[in-house]
Amino acid sequence: MSDSVDSRFAPPVAHVDDVVGAGAEEQLATRGQRFLGALIDGVIGGGIGWLLALLPGFGFMTETGTLRFKAIGVGIVVFLLVQGWLLVTQGQTVGKKLLGMRIVRSDGSAADAGRILGLRYGIGIVLQLNPVLGGLYGLVDGLLIFRSSRQCLHDTIADTKVIKL
Hints:
Elements: H1 31-54, H2 69-90, H3 94-98, E1 101-105, H4 113-128, H5 131-143, H6 153-158, E2 160-164
Antiparallel strand pairs: 1-2
Helix pairs in contact: 4-5
C-alpha cells in the first residue's frame, strides 16, 4: 500500500469568497428620524381627524368625553386612505418618505402588505382598543427602540426594521 493520500479525500483547493448578505449595506434609520417620521404622520392624521370632527355628525367625543366607537373605524379608514398605498407599494408612510426611510424585513427583503398592515399596525390598533393593554403596549413599543437593533415592539412582531434610503 502506498503512503500517498487518495485524492478523493483531499480538501478542496478552490478559492471561495464569503457572500455578503442582502441587508449588509443597509443602514438603520436613526431614532430621531423615526421619531420625526412618526410625528409627521401623527400631524397628518390628527389634522385630518380635526377637520372631520368639525363636520356635523363626525364629532368623536361623547358627552362623557369618551371616544366614540365610530371614530376608531373612521381613523382606520383615513389611515388606509392616506398611508395605505405607500405602505403596501413602497414600505413607507408619508413621514418616512419625506425623511428617506423604508420598512423592510429583517433580512432586507420587501415586507408584504399583510406583514405591514396586519402585524406591524393591526395588532397595535386592536390592543389600543383596551385602555390598559393599549397604554402598556404603547409604552413598551416606544421604549424598545432604545435597543441596539432600534426595533420597536411592532417591528419585532412583524419581523421588520426601518432603514435609510
